[in-house]
Amino acid sequence: MKLGGAGGCALRCGLAALALWPAGCFRAPEPYAPPPQRGSPATLEIPFGSFVNMSDAGAAAYFVQDVSPQLEANAWRWTFEKPTLRFYLPDIAGLYFTMELAMPGVTLAHTGPVVLTVAINGHTFERITYSKDGQYSIRKPVPAEWLMQGSENLVEMYLDKHYVTESDKVKLGFILTRAGFVK
């Protein structure tokens, strides 16, 4: 049977509409917001820098482990077994690592002389023996090849012996006042 003229056109248009009809029954996906965009590393806000005083409001951002969250005398914090700090260094040329600490007589009375080892990004930086209580400073240049520019740098500190408190068995280390990298 051959359809021509107006009847054939109507049949063809009807068949075309019938073929497209199921497509109209499907719902388009709901619009959604794109995921949050991240800035380039140069525009990210880093919560820590190259130096910290233990009394700084944001000091906890520098603590990786074993530094007391409790600020003492508005100036210092106890360290425990293996205090570790992190620092962000935008530039690594000509930096010195500096740290102010105290060795308390109450711990030295139990441990005797202690050896403090400071490591920067896994490299042994300094090893000092303390036999007397008192305040001490370290300031020494750091080889640039040990540091990571524009990245997190870890400073680990540990004593060869700790005073263990009788009441709660906490391993006390030394008193930390400030630490970081300076020009």
Report on the structure:
By secondary structure, the protein is mainly β. The protein has a single domain (51-182), classed as Jelly Rolls. It is built from 2 helices and 11 strands. The chain has helices at 5-20, 105-111; strands at residues 51-53, 63-67, 77-89, 96-103, 114-120, 123-130, 134-141, 151-159, 163-164, 171-172, 175-182. It starts with a helix and ends with a strand. The model is unreliable at 13-23 (pLDDT under 50).
Number of domains: 1
In the CATH scheme, what's the topology name?
Answer: Jelly Rolls
N→C terminal distance: 96 Å
CATH architecture: Sandwich
Order of secondary-structure elements: HEEEEHEEEEEEE
| Major sheet characteristics | 9 strands, antiparallel
How many helical stretches? 2
Give the overall average pLDDT: 86
Radius of gyration: 33 Å
**For this structure, what is the CATH class?**
Mainly Beta
- Which class do the helix and strand fractions yield? mainly beta
Quaternary structure classification: single chain
Shape: globular
